[in-house]
Amino acid sequence: MKIMKAILLLFIILGIPLSASAGSDHEAASVASAVDDIYGDRGGTVELKVALSEAVDVGMPSEAVEGFVREAARSERDPGEVAEYIRAASDLFSDGIPEALLFNTLIEGFVKGVGREEMQRSVGLLRSKLRFASKITAKHTVRRGGGRSDHELLLSALFHTMNMGYAEENLKALSKAAGEKNLTSRGFFNILKVSMELSGLGIRPARVTAIMERSIRNGTSMRQMSGYPSFVREGREKGLADNDIYSFLMIKADEVLNSEKSSSGTGTGSGQSASPSGGKGGPPGGGPSTGGSPGGGK
Amino acid sequence: MKRKKDYDDRDLRRAFSSLTRMEAPERTVRELSERLEREQEGLERRKPAAAPLLRIRREVLFAVFATLLFAVPLTYLVTKRFAAEKAPSRTYVVRFIYEDENARSVHLVGDFNSWRSSEIILERVGDSKLWSAELTLEEGLYKYGFLVNETYIVSDPLSGLKVKDSFGNESSLMVLADGKRRGGSS
After folding, report:
1. Inter-chain touch A193–B182, beta carbons under 8 Å
2. A184 shares contact with chain B (CB less than 8 Å)
3. I need a surface site. Which of A52, A195, B116, B170 has the fewest CB within 10 A?
């Protein structure tokens, strides 16, 4: 009986890690053989294989890594160079940053024919942006709850917001205000979405930050904030100058506060006056139209 | 540093053997025998715990062998089969429109197709200058552009959301997410 117990215990203790390592070894081997398929006898593949094996060891999905190598090879990138990028992605991945953000940006660079030196220079910047975005995301998803998809969505939004010209200070200010108002991770994501839209309409990131920060602190509803871009478009159509639009938006950010004060004082508050006139259109910026539906997934 | 011996071992042994034997004091003998007894007891107390471990060696070897033979492949297969899949996310049907009278071909490239030019082709709408394609995408943020005549990539003129990539080029950004948090697969 004791022997049986010992065997069972060993099954559990040894079985799981061994099977996991067997799985990762198998994946690493399959990715390594894919490198041979992709690059053939070309030099520098040993370094790439080592980088791939490390990537699989930290838990990066082998399909994603293999796909990245294929794209790199398609753009005739040197295996040694690709190894460097994979190492950078592994490093980020082990800190909880999904590989897709870095890989997509690099693939975009390959397709656009960006040179090796420029790519290598950018990787450092990309890493620091992603790390910063991850730090802010962690604050919101850990404190306010939220699933993995919310986490990735917020991380991605922060990263792209930075690519739109937002400085770390801008995002820190928005994050702080959102944190103080106990906004959920999805709530903070929505703030960023509106911010991006406003920047897309030509309002400078520092100004957008001021508007949004004030709105959050004043407790402006998301519905009201979603109306800001329509307000800017209307203002532009009417020929208002950027400074005027900015001033009006700052007034709008104070509207809730004012209406609350007036309603508590005289009882004649006007309520929420900012209603989006544009209605539901496509995604922010008026690009491709979304007809779809939040359907039930695949 | 090793010092050189200034005596001979045989001489030393001879000198020791010539010494007269003395009786050890009774107290010292008693203390020594008590100490030996204590150490012996200590060893025996440890024995029951250590003994099965030594005896079990064969069983352990068998268990390790059995684990390698059955548990590893079994657990691997089971974890592969029942691995937690990512919860399905919301999907969006997106229509892309590009206007260009002189274009001979227009492809849609972006994060969603690894910027691969051959995958999504926009079709000309009748005889007009409009090109169009429809795509189903999951919730997320995507950078994209149009590859015109298979030579150059332009950002979407109809979209106000533009991002500079890390290499100084401009792409369009599409945000597919509604304000509400996703709940399960509904």
Report:
1. no
2. yes
3. B170
pLDDT tens sequence across A225-263: 999 999 999 999 999 888 899 998 898 888 765 555 554
User: What type of residue sits at position A268?
Assistant: T
Q: Which amino acid is at B26?
A: E
pLDDT for res B110: 92
Phi-psi sector, B86: left (phi>0), alpha (psi -120 to 50), beta: beta
For chain B, helix (H) and strand (E) counts, in that order, are 4, 8
Domain range annotation of chain B: 28-82, 91-176
Of A154, A171, A147, residue with least CA distance to B177 = A154
Residue B45: is it exposed, middle or buried by C-beta count within 10 angstroms (0-12/13-18/19+)?
exposed
State percent of chain A over pLDDT 90: 30
Alpha carbon of B148 to those of A5, A111, B105, B120: distances in Å? 68, 14, 6, 12
Rounded average pLDDT over A92-119: 89
A-B C-beta contacts closer than 8 Å: 219
Is domain B91-176 annotated with CATH 2.60.40.10?
yes
Q: Which of A108, A184, A222 to mutate to test the interface with B (most CBs of B within 10 A)?
A: A108
Q: How far apart are CA A11 and CA B164, in angstroms?
A: 53
Contact B159 A285 (CB under 8 A): yes
Distance from the Cα of residue B85 to its chain's centroid:
17
* Cα nearest neighbour of A161 on chain B: B163
DSSP-derived pairing of the beta strands B120-124 and B162-164: unpaired
Q: Which of A12, A19, A189 to mutate to test the interface with B (most CBs of B within 10 A)?
A: A19
Query: For residue B103, what are its two tokens?
Result: 């274009």
**Cβ of residue A109 closer than 8 Å to a chain B Cβ:** yes
C-alpha to C-alpha distance for A243 and A235, rounded to whole angstroms: 11
**A36 lies within 8 A of chain B by CB:** no
Instruction: Provide DSSP, B69-120.
Output: IIIHHHHHHHHHHHPPPPPP--EEEEEEEEE-SS-S-EEEEEGGGTT-TTTE
Chain B CB within 8 Å of residue A147 CB: yes
Distance from CA of A115 to the nearest CA of B (A): 9
Per the CB < 8 A criterion, the answer to whether A244 and A252 are in contact is: no
Q: What is the ipTM of this complex?
A: 0.74
